[in-house]
Amino acid sequence: MAPKRCSKWPDPSQEEGLAQEEEEEDFALTQRSSQVQRNLQRLSGAQVDQKVSELVQFLLVKDQKKIPIKRADILKNIIKDYKDVYPEIINRAGRTLQQVFGLRLVEIDTKHHVYILVSDLVRLEGENLKQDHLTARLGLLTVILSFIYMRGNSAKESDVWDMLKRLGVEPRKPHKLFGDVKKLVTVEFVQQKYLEYNRLPSTDPAEFELQWGPRAAKETSRMQILQFVAKIQSKDPKTWSTQYSEAAAEVLSCSSSPPGDVGGDSQGPRRRKPSVSSSSPHGAL
Amino acid sequence: MSEAAGGGDSPHDGGLDSGRRQPFPSTSRNGAVPEHQQRRLAGGRGRQRAAGAANEGVDGEEEESDEEPSQDSERSAGGSEPDGENTDRRMLRHQYRQLINRVQQNREDMLSSKSNSLTEALQEANKLFSGVSQAREAALDAQFLVLASNLGKEKANELHSEMTVFDSPAFAEDLLTFMGLNRLEEEENNSDDEGITGGFLPTNAWHKLGAEAERYFRRSPSFHYMLGSFKSDPPVPRQRIERQKKKGGTEEKRAMPAQLKKMEESHQEATEKEVERILGLLQTYFTDDPNTPISFFDFVIDPNSFARTVENIFHVSFIIRDGFARIKLDQDKLPVIEPSGEEEGRENDQSAQVRNQVVISLSHQDWKDIVETFEITEPMIPPPGISQENES
Question: In this predicted structure, what is the pLDDT of residue B267?
């Protein structure tokens, strides 16, 4: 199970699966920029600005629950008649989000066109003043992500529960903080794309395995989680040589502007590793 | 996997079931082919031939044919009827299923690098395969093989990551420490609440962990309007209206009884009171002067007010109607009034006394004339306002 490498270009084999309608829509929405520019000239600047603002607000509100945003929803609710200039609108919205809010609009599924928002700013010390149930959930999620990664990027669901039991979290018992934990882990985290929940073949009764989801891959990294584990266990991250080399490889391969970033001028450093930095004019903002 | 296969092969060299796994058959049995093929066809074991054909080349068939004589002998020993065959096959399938279940149940054990149980399971399957002659059992064997190979793959993976073993129990312990577990020295705590042996987690344990974890994420902060979203509130004015109505209602109710009281007094009780008052006056006058009836006009006329005179006549008429007083004509043919004793009056009224109805008409001029003629200077019936004031 080799570490997933972020590819720079969308996989051409992915596009084969698109249905006829989607292909046509895709064609309309991904016209070349020259065509889009021509379409733009038919509209007034104010109209397009309006749409960009609406889209920014829409994305911010939709992001509250951390459920990825579908392009279909964007088109239906915001873009409506302005489909022919969609690429321009979404790009400008991405730039606004980055420059004004410090958020990056990332397309985590280029086939089905699903977006999430990720923070673009480096975390500061002493930042988390608000600790609520979401904080607690993130703690649980991080434990699971750590376990999955340290066990080779995939873990059986039963193994995950075995470990969580040591922390007082059981799938069949309602938890004081988390409630129905099984649902939280196998449904909610999966919907939010933090985790992937796949059935193991030829198992009866059905068994499942858990892996990192695309949102986890964007919001954190193997190196970050390794640092987390190292901190908890008060050890040097290099103690786990396999995992460490895997994490280092990922950092190197994703050092340039990651694919799927919308409004994508090249970004500031995604990771805290000082050796990997591509500074950009926007980094200063 | 290869290790296991090697282990499977060695004890069974020359064994009947090795035919399937050994790629190179022994050559000594070549000559027996046609004879056995005939026997096979006669025995109606076309399936076996197909299974044999699945093996590589003709050699596989030969190996299959190798098995025939021994199988035939086995079968003849067990009776060559189809029933015996089915029993054997059923037994075989049962054993396969048992093996598969056992492997699935003991997955952990199979995967453990310290145990040979996977190898042993494969050896057992090897043995079972010796009895396989038909596709149904072969399918079970294939199922087992898939299971075993998956396990083998996992086991191999674990071998790889053993280089840097991740000790998850230690990780869990360290997590608990970080979260601030209050460890208990005695083993009293197997509380159902926490499910953690040996201590209690403080209530903010997970929050603390989450706060640390946040530092490793680039989560976008949730966007919420500071003052909440706009909500219209129609219910509030409705309540206000209701309250006002209620207030008005109570006030009105309070007003009602007061007014009613006043009205009743003015209309009904006033007349009765007057009548009673006048009767009282009449009787008072008569007690002073028992044998002299009072002139009617002297009694009722009020020289100061014509209206009151009319009222007095009105009230006196009630007295007469009820029989408390009588009006007669005296010697001068002038009307006089005198109270009648109560009992007398009533009895007389009911039986013998003739009741006359008289209509007295009195004009303003008549009134003035009477006042002059009779020289009435003061009313014998004082006006009601004055008397009330006196009374109050």
Answer: 58
